[in-house]
## 1
Amino acid sequence: MEGALMVGPLRRFLKGLRPADRPLPPMAERSLPCSWVLTGQLAIGPMPRSDRHWRQLEEAGIRSRFSCCYQEEETALIIPAGWRSDRISLPDHRAQEPLLHHRLALALARAEALVTDAAPVYLHCMAGYERSPLLAVGLTARLRGIDLLAALAWVRRCHPMAMPIYDHLVMLEGLLSARQAPGEQRGTGQLDPLPGEERGP
């Protein structure tokens, strides 16, 4: 029932976002357009594509990464020595496969475990538009104790290119609601910006 109540506000929120605002995916010679979502814990963006990108992340203190990409998307990826790494592949707008409830739950749990054990974590998909922001919304909701809409607004504020898929957000809301204890009230999403949370490393 709660998930159904989220449909209207969520649809209105996403309708106000303009796909034309999405920047092009970064070229290997450009800086990685990543963003802190939770300072010292979680940054998100596109897949690193050059040594320069990995150095950029390391200079920000990041040596852990969680990927939402498929194995075939990472054929040219070389992870530097000394990095912690985990990956759960998720579909994007290309619909490589249907997104399954248990798959999203597993990705969220594994990403949260990596943040707990080896923060800060760089959470990425191919372009930083859909899959990594989806998990970032879930992690922000869980770690900050806020609802999905507030978490989505926060992730969009920190990482404006974020455009998670509507149906995937509805599924995520179901996961977050199921984990919420009976009678527990989630926060209203009043988040004070912390230094660095609005810019990438």
## 2
Amino acid sequence: MKKRFLTGFLVAILLSLGIGNSTSYAATTSTFNLEKGMSSATTSRITVSSGQKLHIGIYMNNSSKKPLTYTIFKSGKAYTSGSLNGTTVRKVDGKVISVPTGDYSMRVYSASKTNSAYGGIESR
């Protein structure tokens, strides 16, 4: 009786910690830093697993009035893209994309070397 209770107690603790749960994944993040004078910057690849989404964050200081564009790559091939325009500090914060499982990265391009930006992608 005592052994059965102890086994059940340990199984309950392991399940509450996510051990043995195949759909529980830790978030992974990759960042970029586009400094003035640079024309592009990229993140490294991260893996988006089943049940996760891709989160994008970009913070831009646009002093040139020229757009900053970004492309999301899936396994090295362009998947989707977007752009930021404006004359002040602009941001894409917390944009969430539902994507199929796979490896993703992001590359940010500046039409002017006076722009700067930082940010990244995260799977969760």
## 3
Amino acid sequence: MDSRNIGETRRGDEKIVGQRRVGKCENSREIASTQGSVSHCGSLTRHGLLKSVSQRPPLQQQANLKTSGADLEIGKDSFGGFSILAGRARRCSPRGLWCVSKDHSQSEGIVVADARRVLIAGAGPVGMVAAATLAKKGIPVTLLEAASDLSTESRASTFHPPTLDMLEDIGVAKDLIAQGLIAPTVQYRSTEGPIANFDFGQISDLTGHPYRLQCEQYKLTRIIARTYGSDPHFRIEFDAEILEAGQGEHGVSVTVRKPDGSIERREGLWLIGADGARSAVRKSIGITFDGFTWPERFLVVSTRFDFLKIFPDLASVSYVADPVQWYFLLRVPGMWRAMFPIAPDVPDEEAATRKYGANTLARHFAMAATAPIDHVTLYRVHQRVAATFRSGRVFLAGDAAHINNPLGGMGMNGGIHDVVNLCGRLTKVWRREADPSELDRYDRQRRLVTLEYVQKHTIENKRNLESRDPREQQSFRTEMARTAANPELARNYLMKISMLASLKRAAELG
């Protein structure tokens, strides 16, 4: 390739020229470029992408190139989208599908536009499931993640039966189950002993996974990354902190900040905000997040102490009602997680220490006084729901759309249910099998069941466990025992706590 201007640099088999030039690669295929673009001499893959280079040639040169007898379009993926990049080149994608950087001689940052690509903010479990669901349908997605890698935080660790069914649909349930712990029952206790036991086997005709799976959420994101990492429709861009989101009649855009402080822009067809409770997407489009914050915080102590030594009849998922300080015991592979409410007058700096966690365990369980503690986590608990889950081409899901206390394990599961619902509708519209009004059903279904089921149940669960009124305590215990003893009532209750009932309700809303 020869240039008609200055400012040329070489990187492997690509030549990057800062100004205007017309060139020819060694294979005699001519590729012209315009100001600020990048030209390549890389080989072609079967997907029409340049193999070993990042920037695609200019849009006016996207046709009439052939290799191995097949017509391939440079600058277009097999899904028909395109990319526009401005500035000089650098690596910005872990998969190396393109690399761009801000040209500091220009005032604007990089623009990456893809007319058919779905942008997803956040590479947590909800965002990753959304990406996998769409990629499996042949819809191109780009995940934008602020961190430099997938999170290693435990956080959510319960997967409900219908969630496992959904994960099976995208081919990741088997590996997740292999890394988790199957919990076939849920137990409610008081300090005196068991109140009620519920066996998920009673709803085995409604799900292919009649149990709760206890497994840290970070394992799911890694399984998805490994399963879909080579899929040409699946991309993750790390170190891409979303600052602002916007939309127009035909697409969406997000402004991202890179680690070096440069500002870049990404454009696509739709945007799914799965970027957590402090969602930049939600704030950018002006959707309110109404609700309240509980005065106490929750402390989670992870320990390898075996609580079966104290309670031989303990289930792997056990809620313990106590008017002084209720608690929750959850078994995961290799350890137990004990969760306690922490009074507002205890400073964060004190409550978040291993010493405080050890003392809390010792107050409740003398045998665990010297138990090794792997880690402690202190966090504030909210009950909030976004005013809407959809604004034009922008959608909210998971914690960006709703947050609740963790009693019942409905937060992450509800978020996964959100995106499976949404992505099914996006697929129909993307394929032109449905009118865009189909997307309105996402907000109508998922927001209402969040209010009716997730918020209501998690609030009730907390209040039942912490009640100090003797009459309320006795009423709760009597009702739970009666429900567990009656097969029909137990089945209905299991449908509610497994979230099958909320999915049924969503379908009824049309």
